[in-house]
Amino acid sequence: MSEPSDTSRRLRPSRAVRSDAALGRPAGGRRARGARGPSAWAARAGRARFPLGAPTWPGGVPRPTPEPELGVHYDTAWSRRYPVRLARAVVLDNVTRPLARLVAAPELRGGEHLRDLDGPVIFAANHASHVDTPLLLACLPLPFRHRIVVAAAADYFFDRRWKADTFTFLLGAIPMERAKVNRRSAELAADLLDDGWNLMIFPEGGRSPDGWAQAFRGGAAYLAARTDRPVVPVHLDGTRHILPKGRSTVRRSRTTVTFGTPLRPGPDEDARRFGVRIESAVAALAHEAATDWWTARRLAAAGSTPALRGPEASAWRRAWALPEASRRDADQHATAAGGPPGPEWPPRRRA
Amino acid sequence: MSPRPGFVLDVDSSTPPTLFWRGERLSLERLPEGSRVVYPPEPLDPLEDPSSAIRHALLHPVGDREPLPALLSAGMRLTIAFDDISLPLPPMERPDVRQLVIEQVLDLAASAGVDDVELVCALALHRRMTEAELRHALGDRIYDAFAPNGLLTQHDAEDPSNLVHLGLTDRGEDVELNRRAAESDLLVYVNINLVAMDGGHKSVATGLASYRSLRHHHNPVTMRHSRSFMDQDRSELHSANWRMGRLIADAGVRVFQIETTLNTDTFPGAFHFLQKREWEWKAKDRLAYAAASAALDRTPARVARRIFHSVRAPHRMTSVQAGEVEAVHALTTEHVWRQQGVAVEGQTDILTMGLPYISPYNVNSVLNPILVACLGLGYFFNLYRGKPLVREGGVLIMTHPTPWEFHPVHHPSYIDFFEQVLSETTDPVEVADRFEEDFATDPWYIHLYRTGHAYHGVHPFYMWYWCAHALEHLGAVILVGGDTKAVHRLGFRAASTLTDALEMATDVVGPSPTLTHLHAPPLLLADVT
User: Fold this and answer.
1) Which of B8, B9, B20, B279 to mutate to test the interface with A (most CBs of A within 10 A)?
2) What is the ipTM of this complex?
3) Higher pLDDT residue, B110 or B355?
4) What's the CATH architecture for B7-43+341-528?
5) Selecting from 3.40.50.11440, 3.30.465.10, 3.40.50.1820, 1.20.120.160, what CATH number does the domain B50-262 have?
6) pTM (global) more than 0.80
7) Residue contact A23–B290, C-beta within 8 A
């Protein structure tokens, strides 16, 4: 004879076994009449029973700590597979580039610096707008345009699955931690450079809040020193008028994209000093965009290039001192002549 | 993250429906609150470098054996035997473990200048493997080197000229073995240990034996005294094989045993949800289930069978050990339990299980009603150590369509067994006494076994004997969703739904019974206390 079975675990008679005949049928029987459209569908999907809906979690099973899948942990390897690259190239060439030309009317300068470059490079640019990335992608020549990854803020572009998927597909974005040093981000970027991918990075770590650049961080310089790849300084002028930080509507404006001479870290130059040199190079390009090449070169040689970060002064004085302020009148004249409009003045308050 | 161990889930109101296999179909069933579900452990991490591990095992054998290179010399006679198509389940992705091991053994034999090498598939009374199956198991390199020269053979348990009688055990059991294996200077056996029942002395003493030898332990009495087959210390089946194995060693047959274990990574890609816990199914898994379930429900059984039998398991090797049989097998068994063991407290009144499409005896074939019974009562029921999951007098509920369908090439004697024997009696002892001899010696079945791809004439009897322990132990067996006539022929009760089956079970075990569901495959071994 065997022992009697455990009686403490008797089945509850009130609960009958149910087969999966109810598969996919929403709880509550009949659907409410009149509920149509995407939101109604979403609501129904949310109510759908397992397996179409999400399963419930058994009470006796502790929930495991979920493996992080977003932020710097987001896996972007899929975006570098050939079919995805092909799809991205199609979108970039047939949608992004025409749109960039339409909205930003970019004027390219210094493209000759890219002609003799061999192998992967790091493009380090100032950052004033979400338009910067697609604009710069659209302006890159072919050897670089279709084999580039973009360092994007892990906490901003990779905080939701749909955002991570979208930007990874459209831009080839890779997550970059900007609040602290993150080995995973740096390893990924370095590995990709070693694998022959070009890298676009905005060393400021975020868009300018007021039109003046922020201090450059050391990521681009560190990666260049580590992978022994050149850094191409890039200045983007005018994108702030198209879509500045804090605004959600796009407005057409003229832009200037200036590529500088590729830089390599000197033999005794550490990443911090090389980072300063990159920032100075972008500042010189900014000055060149505001004046002319010869003026910019002379001031750069004299070490008198105006700082990218603007004057240490109150907010209004910093705004007053913005280089484009002096061009405002010229833009308004251009608008009257049928050219792309300049920034709205006075600026509207956001609702 | 390291793989999580198996565990017993207590079903409550928030537990999602549980996956049930129904042959080539799937369903989700909501079990009553208070039920238990025994979930298998997650697949263990495989060996990082299987080739190096195999080489290490061959050079550092366990037990009283020298390293393999020291056992190999020019002019010697070497036989390499290996497990047949019944292992692993489902067949694994290429390269098969047998190929990896045998290639290294052959490399060493070639280095030692061994010319007389023959490979023997240890079929026992199973069907002969096809060329494609052999190529899958051994790889093209081995097949092309040996098969054209007649050096790759399949054990023929009915060829008197190819058998040698080594003697009787102290219990009077005949030990008759493949002549080539017995008369070789060294017999290397390459095993895949899918469950704790496999391997050890059973590899040679069963795999290379004749009917005259096998009948001593493949009978109802032995099976009823094997509690269970997975627990060697309490298995009369293993005791008999161990007696025979020791006699084989005493007779001078030098066996170098190589045993491997696999993890339970059983289903690839689209079918991966089958080995995940339901509440952890992501949208992709749920979609895969819904699509697979809906598609299979609308697919003819023959097509669904073909789809499932094309599945190749992504099993990976978790251990390999070589040397003296018993020392090797002790290590192997530890590895199997490490992968499959689940501690279960207490027995249950009702045990439910969903039977999949495959058993060891229907690879690339039909799971006929006898094999359905064998899979449920012979294999799944015996996946325990200590006590059966279900109490004595309890009820076993299985879900499977159990079609009245047989593979005429693979299972010819099954057809007659089902028609002639089970229509008379389902009592294993009576079956053995009245019918076994006729089927075992039937010249037509022997001819089909030797020349075609048929299981031996006595094989369906053995399948029925596998059920003997469960049939004696259980109060009732209910098959849900099965062909009613076929189910009744087996001596079981037929139910349309799980709800009906539970209602019927309460007639046997009383109202408010306890219920446990065995969530397999992937395989698990319940350590019942």
Assistant:
1) B279
2) 0.77
3) B355
4) Alpha-Beta Complex (3.90)
5) 3.40.50.11440
6) no
7) yes
